[in-house]
Amino acid sequence: MQSTESPASMEVEAAGTAAALPPKPQFEPLKPHEMSDGRVQFRKVSVPPHRYSPLKKAWMEIYMPVYEQMKIDIRMNLKARKVELKTRSDTPDVGNLQKCADFVHAFMLGFDVVDAVALLRLDELYVESFEIKDVKTLRGEHLSRAIGRLSGKGGKTKFAIENATKTRIVIADTKIHILGSFANIKVARDSLCSLILGSPAGKVYSKLRAVTARLAERF
């Protein structure tokens, strides 16, 4: 059964209903502290015993960028031995809280403040951690030799990998922490794993040169 209404009358009806609709409401953009219903957000970072003294010495270097630039409140809870962070009403972005927590955590892992502060300024930086036993189960002198191969004489091997891959590496006993971009962390991790598995440093250097040259061409 076909409709008897003409197309012209349907157009008039549509125009009439559009005119009858109320105007769209204009909402002001939410301020960052209003996004979580105005609730203050917290983060806590534990301080390991061996990082307590370095934290005391570098406290102002950590405090200034967090409080002044990122607009995040920071304090040291001496009883709980934790660094506590919380958002303020003038915090420009809620994501700043997590960035500051990552920055403080990176310092606790053993990175220098000047290296860790890059986490606040760049979005594409990460910290990756793994243990030597994740790569190969080593014990006794074999483990000591593997740690020695990773560092090299006077830290030469570690510095060479850092400079070639634009990363920062912390070797804390059997734990290894790498700070850098995703692609660079992968290259550094592959080099470190080769050293753990027993490759001589010279072979790792030559492979590293080839990989970094390929990366440079790509970017």
From TrEMBL:
One of its GO terms (cellular component) is nucleolus. Signal peptide: none annotated. GO terms for molecular function: RNA binding. Residues 1-33 are annotated as: Disordered. The keyword Nucleus applies. It holds the Pfam family KH_PNO1_2nd. The keyword Nucleus applies. Keywords: Nucleus, RNA-binding. InterPro entries: KH-I_PNO1_first (IPR055212), KH_dom (IPR004087), KH_dom_type_1_sf (IPR036612), KH_PNO1_2nd (IPR055211). It is found in: Nucleus, Nucleolus. Residues 124-197 form the K Homology domain. Belongs to the PNO1 family. This is RNA-binding protein pno1-like. It comes from Punica granatum. The gene is LOC116215588.
